[in-house]
Amino acid sequence: MRILMLSWEFPPRLVGGLGRHVDALSRALVAAGHELHVVSRTHPHAPAEERHGALHVVRVDASPPVVPFDDLVPWVLGFNTAVLGAATRILRDHDVDVIHAHDWLVASAAVEAATTSGRPLVATVHATEYGRHQGHLPGPMNRLIHGVEGWLVEHADRTIVCSTYMHDQVRTLFGVPEDRLDTIPNGVAVDDLAPPADEVRALRATLADDDTHLVLFAGRLEYEKGVQTVLHALERLAERVGAVRFLIAGVGTYSDELRRLVDELGLGHRVRFTGFLEERELRLHYAAADVAVAPSLYEPFGLVATEAMACGTPVVVSDTGGLREVVAEGTGLRFPPHDAEQLAARITEVLVDPGLADRLVARGREHIRDRYRWEDVAARTVDTYTAVLPLGRAA
To answer: Hey, what domains does the chain have and what are their CATH numbers?
Structure first.
């Protein structure tokens, strides 16, 4: 297959799970013998164009480049103008079979490129604006994003989602027919994620002493990720298990609010914000933690949980969305979203019972090794590409 993939995130430009998904999927597709062209956002430490065997990456800046990212709608329009230009050049110079768009931020470029070239379009919806705001679209920006999401899947020949939860949501919100909607989970490279034990011990010694329990959250710092629930649970957790340190790894628009909450609750001695962690550092932090938490209010899949399990760390997650599917019975513990008391209780169970923690890790690794191999994700994605090949548009 010859694939043109459009994504606003691609290494080293990583914000959340989307970019890491596109990176791992790209590598798996190339390893399986496919030719892949990726158009993504520019980065100061990456070339504008590079090739690695069958992988061809083009990075573009918004056009015009003077529009700030904070002014999101004009920025997205300018970014799509640049993406479309790069995509058009690739389509002119290469015999591409299918175009694959990731989320609404590349929607207009993807639809225009597919329409003018006659190539079929596959769209992956990684999350919805409706879901991120717990079923509300509070402002004009939210309604605009929701509308673009619906427009993208309406024009896509086939849509991919990452969980049964997302399948039901996209079907309900946008009316996508069953025969145009595929559920393909995210993957996790189990054997690649677990870092060397000596490096884990060395990092652990810098994070907390031997008598302190280490709890980790990793992900975007947004309201829907539920970090505030962990902060409200910390003191009652400390009363039950002793010294606790909570590491918050990530960046996002809710960061300042979380820092204010830390001050308000007097948790400065228990909480550390690490900022964004590169892939290797993130894996070391996962492995160094005694428990990883995913307290999301909304979660399409739950990549953090699979990565933590792969690194040998027990997980406690919200009983919601894709997390409910990823963290099956016996692979981790779940609690009701927003419920700080139940979260503290579940974390306590893991921390006071090493045997339980070991069983969760063993079952978790077996579970994700069986269900979330990137080779399988790539193969199923190619099945979706194959299904749309006869559907090329008339230019």
So the answer is: 2-187+373-391 (3.40.50.2000), 190-371 (3.40.50.2000)
